[in-house]
Amino acid sequence: MAIDTLEPVITPDLVWKQVRHRARVTLLVPFAIVAYLVYTWFAFGVPDLLMRAQPERAVILATDTVAYKVHVTRSFRTNEFEVATEGERTATYDNSDVPDWVRLDGDNAMIDLGDGYSVEIVGKTALFTIPGYGVIEGTATANGVETVLPESDAPDWVKVDPRKLDVRPTLDRRLQVTKTKIEVHNYFGGWENFWFPFRSPLWGMSFSELYALALSSDRMDPDYSNLWFIVHEFLENPDWQHGTVFVALFETIMMAVLGTLTAAIFGLPLAFLAARNFTPSKILRFGTRRLFDFLRGIDMLIWSLIFIRAFGLGPLTGALAIAFTDTGSLGKLFSEALENIDNKQVEGVRATGASQIQRYRFGVIPQILPVFVSQVLYYLESNTRSATVIGALGAGGIGLLLVETMKTSRDWENTSYIIILTIVVVILMDQTSGWLRRKLIEGK
Amino acid sequence: MMAVAALEQEILSMRKRRQLYSMMGLLLVIAVLVSGYSKSNEMNSGGFLQGLSKFFDYPGEIVAEAVAAGPGFFALILQFVPAMLETLNIAGVATLLGGALAVVLAMASTRNVDSWGPLIPVVRRMMDIMRAFPELIIALFLIFVLGSSPVPAMIAVAFHTAGALGKLFSEVNENIDRKPIEGLSACGASWLQRIRFAVLPQVAPNYLSYFLLRLEINVRASAILGFVGAGGIGQELRRTIGWGKGAGDETAAIFVLLFVTIMVIDQLSSYLRGKLVGSGRAH
C-alpha cells in the first residue's frame, strides 16, 4: 500500500496548531484594521476638522439650490428703493412695476412676506411683524442701529448688534438693518431667470407663447429668425451661461472619447509586441512592457500637468493626458488577453495556408475582440469621470467651470446646475457604454 | 441544389452586410478622431504644433533643476514622504471603508446569496449612482463644508469605491456554488450564518483581489484630488508648481516619488492578486 493513499495523520498537536493560527489571524486582522483607522483618525486631524466644520454652509447650499431670493433694499446713500432678484443690477425691477407683494410709497414701503409676516419701512425705521412673537423695530441712525424688541431676551434667530440688526424668523424671510441700508429678503422656490435673462423680451413667457413666437413671422430682432433669437437668448443668459456650460460639457466628453479611442488604437499594436506568444524577442517584449508601466506609472495627474504646460488649456490637453495613461493600461490588458488566447484557432487558420496577416485577422482578432470592446467601453465610462477631474487641474471643460463657480459664486444654484448636468452626463455615458457592451458582446 | 445555392446566397449577403457594418463602424471611429482632434485643437488655447516644440521644455526644465540640486535631490524626495503617506492613507482608509460598505451592498443585491428580493433592484440602482458620481464633485462640496483636509477626499473616494466594488462583488456572488448555502440552510442556519460560513469563504480570494486593484486605482485618485485642495502629495505638487521656476527640483522630486510609489503598489498588487486568484485572472 502506497503511503499517499493513507489518511493524513491528525494529531491533537496539529489540530491545536491550526486552531491557534486561525485564532491569531481572526483576532489580528480586525485589530490591525481598527488600529489603522484610529491612527488615520488622528493623522487626518478629524477631531479638529469636526470643530472647524461649517455645516451651515451645507444648509446655505441646499436652500440656495432650491430657492432664490428677491431683495428689497432701501439705501440711505441714494435714498431710493431697489427691488432686485438676488440683488443683481441686471435683474432690478422698475420701481413703477414691482412685484405685488411690495408696495412702495415715497420714503415708505409695505412688504408682505406671507403667512402674516410683514415688514413696514417708515423713513429710517423697519417694523418687522412676526406672528406669535410681536413687532421688532430697527432704526438706522447716524452711527449704528437702534433695536426695540417686544421681549427683553432676543431669541436666537435675532442677532442684535449696535452696528447691525439681523432677523431671520424662518429660513425664507430675512431683515437686515445697518446704518446705510435696510434690506429685506423674500425667498421663492425654483431657479430664477433660468430660461431667459430678466431684461430679455422673452422673460416670463410661457412655453406655448414661445412656441407661437417661434412660428410667427413677426421678427423680434430684424436680423434673425425668431427661433434663432430664442435659442440665442437662452444660451447667452448671463446668470446661467447655458452656452458656456454646454460647451464645457462637450469638451469634457470630447476629452474622454478622443483619449480612450487614441489609447485603444495605439495600445492594440503595442500589445502584440508585449505578448509572449507573438514576440519572441525578449528585449522587445521587456521594452514594450516597461513602456506600458512607465505610461501608467506617470499617472494622469502628471501627464496633464505636463500637457497643460505644452498645449495650454483645452480638450486637446485632456485627451492627450488620457490617451498617454491609458495606452499603458489598455496595452497591458490587451497583451494579457493576447497571451491567454487559444492557439488552436490560429493553427486552424494556418492549416488553410493563411499568411501571417490573415492568421492575425481570422485567428487572433476574433478571440480578443470581446475583451477589446468591453475594456475600451469600460475605460470610456471611467474616463468621463476622470475628464472632469483633469479639467479641474486646469485642462478646462466642466471640471474647471465647476471649480471656478464654486470659488466665485454667491449663487449656489449655478453650481448645483453644473453638478446636476455633470452627473447626468456621466450617468448617460455609463448607461450608453453598458448598453453598447451588452449589444456588441452578448448580442442582446 | 437550389436550396444550397439559396443558402450560399444568403451567407454571402450576410457577410456583405457584416462587412458593411464593420466598415461603417471603422469610418465612424476615424471620423470622430479626425474631427475631434481638429476641433479640440481649435478649442485649445495653445495649438498642437506650437506646443509640440515646447513638449519637452517643461520636463527638461525640471530635470535640469533636479540635476542641479545634486545629492540634495534625494533629501527633497524624503521631505515629501509624509505628504505621500497622507495620500496613501486617504486611499487606504477610503478603500477599507468603501470596501466594507461594498460587501454589505453586494450581499444585499444578489439573488444567488438569498438577498431580500424587493431590496435587490433598489440597491443595484443605488450602486449605479454611487459609481457614476464623479469623485471631484463630492470632494469639492465637502471641502467647501469641512474645509481643506484629507477627509473630504477620503469620503469622496470611499463613496465611489463602495459603488464600484459593490458591483464587482455582486458579480462574484453570482458565480458561487450554492451547495454550501443549501447545506447550511438544511441545518437551520440564519441568513447571516449562511453568508459567513457558506458565501464568504468562497468569495474571499476574489474580493481581496478586487480590493487590491481598487487600492491601486484609489492611490491615483487621491493624488489627483489633492490637487483641488484635499491634502497629501497633490497639494504639495500644486504648491511647487504654483511657484514656477526655481521650484522645479521639488516638482521633480514629487514626480519621482509619485511614480515610484505607484509602480511599487502596482507591482505589489498584481503579484498578490496573481497569488490570490491565479495569474490567469489577475488583470
From TrEMBL, chain A:
<dbReference type="InterPro" id="IPR005769">
    <property type="entry name" value="PhnE/PtxC"/>
</dbReference>
<feature type="domain" description="ABC transmembrane type-1">
    <location>
        <begin position="249"/>
        <end position="433"/>
    </location>
</feature>
<feature type="transmembrane region" description="Helical">
    <location>
        <begin position="253"/>
        <end position="279"/>
    </location>
</feature>
<dbReference type="InterPro" id="IPR000515">
    <property type="entry name" value="MetI-like"/>
</dbReference>
<keyword id="KW-0472">Membrane</keyword>
<keyword id="KW-0812">Transmembrane</keyword>
<feature type="transmembrane region" description="Helical">
    <location>
        <begin position="25"/>
        <end position="44"/>
    </location>
</feature>
<feature type="transmembrane region" description="Helical">
    <location>
        <begin position="300"/>
        <end position="324"/>
    </location>
</feature>
<keyword id="KW-0813">Transport</keyword>
<feature type="transmembrane region" description="Helical">
    <location>
        <begin position="415"/>
        <end position="436"/>
    </location>
</feature>
<dbReference type="Pfam" id="PF00528">
    <property type="entry name" value="BPD_transp_1"/>
</dbReference>
<comment type="similarity">
    <text>Belongs to the binding-protein-dependent transport system permease family.</text>
</comment>
<protein>
    <submittedName>
        <fullName>Phosphonate ABC transporter, permease protein PhnE</fullName>
    </submittedName>
</protein>
<dbReference type="InterPro" id="IPR035906">
    <property type="entry name" value="MetI-like_sf"/>
</dbReference>
<feature type="transmembrane region" description="Helical">
    <location>
        <begin position="387"/>
        <end position="403"/>
    </location>
</feature>
<keyword id="KW-1133">Transmembrane helix</keyword>
